[in-house]
Amino acid sequence: MTTVRLPLFPLNSVLFPGLVLPLNVFEERYRAMMRELLKTPEDEPRRFAVVAIRDGHEVAPSAPGMPDPTSLPERGPAAGFGTDPTKAFHKVGCIADAATIRERTDGSFEVLATGTNRVRLLSVEASGPFLTAELETLPEEPGDEAAPLAEGVLRSFRQYQKRLAGARERSLTTGADLPDEPGVVSYLVAAAMMLDTPTKQRLLQAPDTASRLRDELKLLRSETAIIRNLPSLPSSDLTRGPTSLN
């Protein structure tokens, strides 16, 4: 078992390998994380781990608020995550490599990172200025019939896009834009579909590529059938990644 300890960045969304993650970092614990990452030489990866928060929202306040405007916000690296932060997060996450970390004049950061590979959360340490985690790297096994499953998923994904974009609008992605490597297909489709966080988390932690593709094929057929009955559904940009306000 290969393990690594990295800074931990909890989010309200799921990061998949190969996908781009823009971040707007303004909380002090995450500013401290970025300052530490900037100490890494530019020719080395500036890595941190992203995990999805179980309840779908972070309860840590960043300023005094309702109902008592005089109350002070909870502070510290584990603020909002309870006495055992490990229980607040999903167990499978993704390592992110920060290609860009740009500090603004107000001390906040603009970050652009890319998911690299999956990890399993083993433990969380909250003794420093930001959370760190011991992580086990997870291999991506192809599984049975991954290649033909990927072809079927791509066909269904194109139909899904067309339905989502609307009959009068140009499809957001042409066939030439889509990859054909099964693992890449499985992560791209998982990230692009309009699904809730628990469903995306289920796809991320699938035991192998083929299992993920089978699940996506069922989801695509189901979602496309639903959209077919909602002709007024507005189009959505499937290629835009979420921006965290942490």
What does this structure look like?
With 246 residues, this protein is α+β, with helices and mostly antiparallel strands. Helix content is 28%, strand content 23%. Strands 1-3-4-5-6 form a 5-stranded mixed β-barrel. The longest helix has 20 residues. Pfam families: LON_substr_bdg. It comes from Streptomyces coeruleofuscus. This is LON peptidase substrate-binding domain-containing protein.
Computed structural class: alpha+beta
Number of strands: 6
SS field, number of helical segments: 5
Order of helices and strands: EEHEEEEHHHH
**Quaternary state of the chains:** single chain
Runs with pLDDT <50, length 5+? 59-68, 167-176, 233-246
Major sheet: arrangement of strands: 1-3-4-5-6
Strand percentage lies at 15-25%
Rounded Rg: 19 Å
Organism: Streptomyces coeruleofuscus
InterPro entries: Lon_prtase_N, Lon_prtase_N_sf, PUA-like_sf
Domain Lon N-terminal: 6-224
Protein name: LON peptidase substrate-binding domain-containing protein
Which terms would index this structure?
246 residues, alpha+beta, five-stranded mixed β-barrel, 5 helices, 6 strands, globular, disordered C terminus
Layout of strands and helices, then pairs:
Blueprint: E1 3-11, E2 20-25, H1 28-37, E3 47-52, E4 92-103, E5 109-125, E6 132-137, H2 146-165, H3 182-192, H4 197-204, H5 209-228
Parallel strand pairs: 1-3
Antiparallel strand pairs: 1-6, 2-5, 3-4, 4-5, 5-6
